[in-house]
Amino acid sequence: MNQGFEKMEQNGNLTRRKKGGLITMPFIFANDVCEKLAVVGFNANMISYLTTQLNMPLTKAANTLTNFGGTASLTPLLGAFISDSFAGKFMTITGASIIYQIGMISLTLSAILPQFRPPPCKGEEVCQQASSRQLAILYVSLLLGALGSGGIRPCVVAFGADQFDESDPKQTTKTWRYFNWYYFVMGSSILVAVTVLVYIQDNVGWGWGLGIPTIAMFFSIITFIGGYPLYRHLNPDGSPFTRLVKVGVAAFRKRKIPEVSNFEMLYQNDELDASITLGGRLLHSDQFKFLDKAAIVTEEDNTKTPDLWRLSTVHRVEELKSIIRMGPIWASGILLITAYAQQSTFSLQQAKTMDRRLTKSFQIPAGSMSVFTILTMLFTTALYDRVLIRVARRFTGLDRGISFLHRMGIGFVISIFATLVAGFIEMKRKKIAMENGLVEHSNKMIPISVFWLVPQYSLHGMAEAFMSIGHLEFFYDQAPESMTSTAMAFFWTAISIGNYVSTLLVTLVHKFSAGPNGENWLPDNNLNKGKLEYFYWLITILQVINFIYYLFCAKLYTYKQIQVHHKGDNSSVDDNIELGTTV
């Protein structure tokens, strides 16, 4: 295990400089900033690319977009497995970045070369949709991008957090502060993507709009690799999934053995667990006692060289318990992503029908409306970090101000208001369209300012500042230390399923709301004839139910407990810490 020190020779004397810390942040953030520029720069305006460049129907384009988002958020499970099992975070990020670079080059070429796109539409005549060959090239490029993101997303967040050693009493920067910084920097890069890049895509061309982040990604890879000597590297400790399976198998094989009366009789082996308990050993918990049977020593067990398919340590059993406890909280974040996903589909289509002019010669690109989400998220994050935490700390005594469970709960409430408000704004938009006789004309501007959409975009940004950062904190803090990349993958998996749920919801609503006269809540070509407000309110109702579920799960949640061993010059102290409540 690399403990994070390097040797340096100064004036003939050998000294030691601790690795990691703030000096590594520019190298790490540079990589993820460029990944966000590429993903968001395309994703924010992808609905326009699919409908105007590839001539897809609206619902098909919306589902393509959410399916791509879902796949890109599901691949982090693969990246986390590779990282935590054998490759380590640094090598996984580097390899994934190269794959991502290839995907971006392919995507840029598909936007530049005319043979990769159908001919443009003329007037309002029936347009020729992209051929299967043209779509195949697009999907292969997106798949490479999804695979690259799968290695970058779960690892770069955890790799950055690894640079701060909280067991070091001299370490002043805490991981919860790092997560605020991370989201702020990422938000800034997204802000550039939804303004500068979207403007270039709409007004200069998709070649430059995709080419710029492709070039930026190349330089970010060089920068990230250049920071290698400064990083604090934590070596992988084998597949965490295999360890969890071994605990489950051992518990099943001993299912008929009676439970022990005293948990201190359960098997402990500090030497065996040394590589996975550097941050502290997990203490026994009373939940899921049936799993404790995996740590009961029988006459058939060899305690010196145990068969881990039959006998597990308490720490390994508690790793599995931690993951199980996190499951319900993880699931509660799915619907928030479903609500958030509408910004890049139907909210964007709303914006395209509205008055987006700032001057006679300039109008806001529809894909840039998410700038209000990002600005609100950045402002809320900064306000939270600099003001709200200090105020809350006086009442709670927590270093982080409020627990991440409380932070997530606030985000859920704000998200409910976001979709509720969106429904009323859609009613206002359609009313003006009807008053001006524009219901039948999907391509004509409705005389209502696009700034009417600002409340719903801003509320989503505020919700993200609370919910998404709280979600990240929760996964990193409550997951076993040897599974931090896997924990970040859980975060992205929730995003993945949220996008897939959006696809399913759009498909079902489109199918079952269809009327005999071609009426539909979500029509393919003309939102003015639809009932988009009903769709927003359906999501609102689902979010209310989800919030009640979350409150129930949060009330029952038990924080993991660890035993931290601090070593001083002449003494050592073992501290039992219940994470999330007293740290």
Task: Give the structure's gist in a few sentences.
The chain is mainly alpha-helical and 583 residues long. It has helices spanning 25-43, 46-53, 58-74, 76-112, 132-162, 175-203, 206-226, 240-253, 314-332, 334-341, 346-353, 371-396, 404-435, 454-478, 484-512, 532-556; strands at 5-10, 13-18, 281-282, 354-355, 446-449, 561-567, 572-578.
Largest sheet: 3 strands, antiparallel
- Proper CATH architecture of the largest domain: Up-down Bundle
Number of helices, counting only DSSP H or I runs of 4 residues or more: 16
Number of strands: 7
Tally the structural domains. 2
- The helix-and-strand class reads mainly alpha
Name of the CATH class of the largest domain: Mainly Alpha
Fourth-level CATH superfamily of the largest domain: MFS general substrate transporter like domains
Proportion of strand residues: 5-15%
Query: How much is the average pLDDT?
Result: 81
- Stated plainly, the CATH topology of the largest domain is called Growth Hormone, Chain: A
C-alpha geometry: globular
Assign a percent range to the helix content.
55-70%
| Uncertain regions spanning at least 5 consecutive residues | 1-17, 566-583
Kindly, what is the distance between the CA atoms of the first and last residues, rounded to a whole number of angstroms?
26 Å
Return the string of H and E elements. EEHHHHHHHHEHHHEHHEHHHEE
